[in-house]
Design goal:
This protein is an all-alpha fold and about 290 residues long. About 70% of the residues lie in helices and about 0% in strands. It is built from eleven helices and no strands. Helix 7 runs antiparallel to helix 9, helix 8 crosses helix 9 and helix 10 packs antiparallel against helix 11.
């Protein structure tokens, strides 16, 4: 390869990395998400108290900055005297594990079905899209509740249930993208030259739709975190003594009028996490989409 060509590619890469950090919301989102992940990983070492241990003598203590609060319980305690900061830390582990794991499952299912429907078309496309329409016709939360009733409780079941009910958005997106890409000249040329289907999909189609997949995947991580919180709030998700943000919201709803922090602070944790993930998704879309460069 000529030296000037190599130098040009190096400059292009440096420019691409510089452009990556121009988005203020993206950088803020990435920073917040990294902090949340680090706190989640460090929870066993930095949590000041046992997240599941009740201490009735210290119940409903306000946060340290409020009257009657103490820095021993910086964010206060709940109705059983459990430290809210420690519970938020451990709850982040559940939310992130469920969020990323379920998105991987639903993403694999949805991408494969979308590729099959978009690339092959015909009766394969018709069957997949009719199944997709059937899933869309029924609210996802009802599917989740039904599966949880049948399969039982537990984090593994929760990941599986959310994963197998969240593939529809991937399938529709990937199908529409593939329908557009498969008719382009370079895909036709590869097909005419005798390239195998896996090679065409892996080299010519997927790289051109990956930015859209990343966006929908990151948004869906936030959606999954909310779904987990909703199921736990309804008593169908993570069960005590395990800690989840949805369970904390459920425990704190009866104290909203008198002890706002019990439900508000885990709700704030959910909001910040979901917003950070959405910011990162939009940031990656802008950076990876060749049309925006």
């Amino acid at each position: 390869m000529p030296a000037h060509s190599s130098h040009g590619e190096a400059q292009q890469r440096r420019g691409s990395w510089r452009n990556m950090f121009k988005s203020k919301t993206g950088v803020v989102g990435l920073f917040l998400l990294l902090i949340i992940i680090l706190l989640s990983l460090a929870a066993p070492y930095i949590a000041p108290h046992d997240a599941s241990k009740a201490n009735i003598a210290q119940k409903l203590l306000p946060p340290a900055w409020a009257e009657g609060g103490t820095w021993e319980y910086a964010l206060g305690t709940d109705g059983l005297g459990r430290d809210i900061w420690s519970r938020i830390l451990y709850g982040s582990q559940v939310s992130l594990i469920v969020g990323f794991s379920a998105v991987i499952i639903s993403g694999i299912i949805g991408i494969v079905l979308g590729l099959l429907a978009g690339y092959y078309g015909s009766w394969i496309d018709a069957i997949i899209m009719r199944v997709t329409d059937a899933f869309v016709a029924i609210p996802t939360i009802l599917f989740m509740m039904l599966f949880m009733f049948v399969l039982g409780e537990g984090i593994g079941t929760l990941i599986f249930v959310i994963g197998i009910t969240g593939w529809v958005s991937y399938t529709r997106l990937v199908r529409s993208e593939v329908l557009s890409v498969r008719e382009r000249d370079y895909v036709r040329a590869a097909r005419v030259s005798g390239a195998k289907t896996l090679r065409i999909v892996g080299i010519h189609i997927l790289p051109n739709i990956i930015s859209s997949i990343i966006v929908i995947a990151t948004i869906n991580v936030g959606r999954v975190i909310i779904s987990e919180a909703a199921l736990s709030f309804l008593g169908l998700g993570i069960q005590p003594p395990a800690v989840s943000w949805g369970g904390m919201l459920s425990d704190g709803r009866q104290y909203l009028a008198t002890s706002w922090w019990v439900a508000t602070l885990p709700g704030l944790a959910i909001t910040i996490t979901v917003l950070a993930i959405i910011f990162v998704g939009d940031w990656l879309r802008d950076w990876l989409d060749p049309k925006l460069k």
